[in-house]
Structure formats: C-alpha cells, structure tokens
Amino acid sequence: SAVISQKPSRDICQRGTSLTIQCQVDSQVTMMFWYRQQPGQSLTLIATANQGSEATYESGFVIDKFPISRPNLTFSTLTVSNMSPEDSSIYLCSVAQLAGGYEQYFGPGTRLTVT
Amino acid sequence: LAKTTQPISMDSYEGQEVNITCSHNNIATNDYITWYQQFPSQGPRFIIQGYKTKVTNEVASLFIPADRKSSTLSLPRVSLSDTAVYYCLVGDRMDSSYKLIFGSGTRLLVRP
Questions:
Q1: Does any CB of chain A come closer than 8 Å to the CB of residue B42?
Q2: CB atoms B43 and A108 under 8 Å
Q3: pLDDT, tens digit, for every residue of A47-82?
C-alpha cells in the first residue's frame, strides 16, 4: 500500500491569502485525487490530478480557486486561493493503485482554518 | 454515476458481530465495491474490496449477492476501537477515468 504524507498538517490563515498544500507519495502512482472534508461531513472530491494530464475538477470547484500541480509521479500540490472562512476544512490527498479493482489510499489531511 | 445508500448510524456492543448493508442499484459491470473506515482527524483507511460473492480478510468480510445491487460489510466481534465512520463506495468509471465519490457513511458506535 502507498504511504502518503502531507504538509502542512494544519495551518491558520487570514482571509484573502493563499495556502499551498503538498502531497508526497512513497511510490510512483498515476492517479491522484484531492478531497475536502468539512467537520462532521463526508469527503467531497475536488479534482483528479493524474500525472501527464491537466487536472479534472468536479462540479463546484474551479482551477482559479484550487490550482493543482502534478510535476511527477510522487508529488502534487493543491493551492487554496483567496481564502475565505468557508474554505476552512480538512484537505486530503489520495492515490489509487490497481489491485483487482482500484485500491485508494489517503494522506493524513491538512486542517485549514481561515480567520 | 453509481451512488450508494447506507444507514446513517448504528450502535453495537463489544464482542458482537456488526453487519452494515449498502445499496448501489446502478453499479456498473466493471465497478468494484470498496469499504473504508475513518477515525476522527485521520484519512479514510481501506478495509476490503470485492466484485462478487464473498471476500474475507483479517479485518472483515464482504458479502455481495449475485445482482451486485447491494453489499454487506461484516465486522466480527467488534471492540471499542472499531467506533468509526464506515464508507461504502463503488468505483466511478465515467469517461474511462476512475474516481471515488463518497456518500454520507455509517457512524458505528461500539459500546462497552
């Protein structure tokens, strides 16, 4: 199984600023995803960031607000731009590996608070 | 888009077997069924995955009937540490691109 780390683990930011979250995987993976989870809620998929192609955003999420980079098979970043208190959430990086069906593994998350 | 429906919450006691059922009426032919466990302040953790019939690992069993429109996660003899949210997911293969869409999950509370 893939081991995923995220930086920072948490941050408190002021509205109007931007934060870049890093995701590092211990093995090469093609399929990577970014999710958001608000307190007490389920996970919401923000975008799919497969290496070699542009990120694909889900309905309600746009590139200008959540730009994603995927420079290689072990690393990705998600930027939360022009933050507002509504962006306060946990952001999770995830990768999928094929093993029969796809098995998906998640990072520990980045807890973001916007004041 | 294959969606899942599962109970919002369940209560159990230590030592009991817990069965959580999930319905996925629109599952596609190539989709697998996967269950995840999530503790507070942690990312979801893969528990088990199956395509049809029964799958068992060291943690749980997964029962899938022939029509694959539902599945049941079985946790044998739960302990307090099994208190968590359990998500049933079906792989979404729209546009030949895999992704997982999470439903609301089932909050399992194990009591002493």
A1: yes
A2: yes
A3: 999 888 889 999 999 999 999 999 999 999 999 999
